[in-house]
Amino acid sequence: MRRSCRPRCSKRRLWFLWNSARPAVLGLAVALYADAVPAAPTVHTIMIDGMRFIPQTVEVKRGDTVVWRNKDPFPHTATATGGGPASPPIAAGARWTYKATKRGSYPYLCTLHTTMTGLLVVK
Fold first, then answer.
1. Where are the domains of the chain?
2. I want to staple 59 with a disulfide (CB 3.0 to 4.6 A). Which of 74, 111, 118, 121 is the partner?
3. Against a cut of 0.85, is the pTM above it?
4. How many angstroms separate the CA atoms of 91 and 36, rounded?
């Protein structure tokens, strides 16, 4: 009498399928997890030097922090015209921090030296 190989064959087939598909399943799981976990907030630094904001345009994500560092020998501000950052005077050698919470495009300037302008874009 001949024995059927069905139980053994199906186990082998399942083992083969699982071992073949495991890298793809793990890769998909990692990709889904990476999309589900938000990236940690980033700190962006804008230098105030030579009567300029450097860089002049900065793109950040919601939740990121923006730091203005004043390297000039006199105070400056970073004040947006319609919401967004509104710093007090930033003394020489000091810094001011702003947390970007609202999406939008925020043109800003130094209220003490109105030719100094910049743009903060929050995505």
1. 1-37, 43-122
2. 121
3. no
4. 41
